[in-house]
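Q&A log
Question type: sequence-to-structure
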Amino acid sequence: MKKNAKVLGDLDRARFAPTSVRDEIRRNVLWKLRDGSALFPGIVGYDETVVPQLVNALLARHDVVLLGLRGQAKSRLARLLVEFLDEETPVIASSPLREHPLAPVLDSSRRLLDEAGDDLPIAWLSRADRYGEKLATPDVTMADLIGDVDPLKASHRKLDLSDPEVIHYGIVPRTNRGVFTINELPDLAPRIQVGLLNILEERDVQIRGFPLRIPLDLLMVFTANPEDYTNRGSIITPLKDRIASQILTHYPRSLDEAREITDAEAWSERGGAPCGIVVPGFLVDIVEAIGFEGRESEYVDQSSGVSARLSIACRELLISQVERRAACHGGAGCARLIDLAQVLPGITGKVELVYEGEQEGATKVARHLIGLACRRVFDRLFPDVIEEGSEIRTGKGMQPRHQSDCYKPILDWFAAGKRLEVSDDSDDDAYRAALEKVPGLAAIVAERLPDELPVVRPAAMELVLEGLHQHSLLAKQDVASGASYSDMLGILLEDMK
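Response status: OK
Response body:
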């Protein structure tokens, strides 16, 4: 056997016997399952949900539609399907449909095989070459997808327009013996969706009324947003009926899963940075929590979703802010909580707001989401904050709940009329010194986060202040390149005056 055979006579006919794409994928999926190999490397959070359903669909030789909101790795899943194809496969070198040399489907290829015999030239296709993809838009035509009659070819070769030899094939037939994906299927015009029916059911094509009985060998994959989200169109019922498996995707269900995705996708390793950059783990969690808060916010259109790309963009902007400050001032280059104000551009363009959100404004909503994310992480890391005078119902009636004593020195310091301003533009020494002036702040961080590096502790101290603000125990005002914390009651009295 010659793996890189150039003519049919040198091909190992037993090893490279004609096999349908679906059977090829099915065989390789089973091999990977038996070997315990990773089926979809880089896909996080789908091991118990999407992956088993998708594997079952492949084993059943089904066409698939991946249905989910934006940023749920639908396209990535589709592109990874080529890893279940053989490493290389032989094709007739001159065939527009990449036919197998032992099983040609076009009359012209059959004639060529009869004439050339074992001298038939063959070529080899890699996995990557067997994948095709098209983004559905309203202007996509049947000629783009399926093909059209080429009058110039008919004229030059003196052929009738009904002769299959004058057909110029579209992108779908040219991906024959491979995997073809149509992204955002509902955006495809209904009349074009109708043109896909024969491919899915009969595995042939029709071009300008000419029924060409070409048995296409394809695995068709579609991606779509839920129909109640997109107002641009929908999947027509007959086409949906012919797609054998519909698989629902979803967003990460835990901060750990979301963090793993961002770790893999965000550009965090900055070559040539002036110094090392440190992003504390709790700040990373806050960035991830912004997306979770957005998916629950009354200001955000939940039918649109909040993409995982939001966390990726915010992580990169946060690192860039630290990199910029380190270049200006030097130092360790540790991210601060106040740096989150610089990730607003990564949020405002990635959330669709409802009417109430539009009234508030995209920037204000983004700041609100950041605040809620800070509160979520603060509540997980530090003692509960209960307002004085609150009560809970017990078996003995209403009983008072006491505020955590660890916050009392902090609140008393602000109640004495003190203010604290933090800036994203100050050097590390000034930033740390400002926070250490607040009594009790360093102690609570040392107690609750004893394993954090010294360079990280000032950012944790700032998180305590932000947590108290989010629980309405401290006031906060945005100032130039930073924020100012003060006593809540004092601000209220100033406002009254």
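Response note: Residues 309-329 form the longest helix (21 residues).
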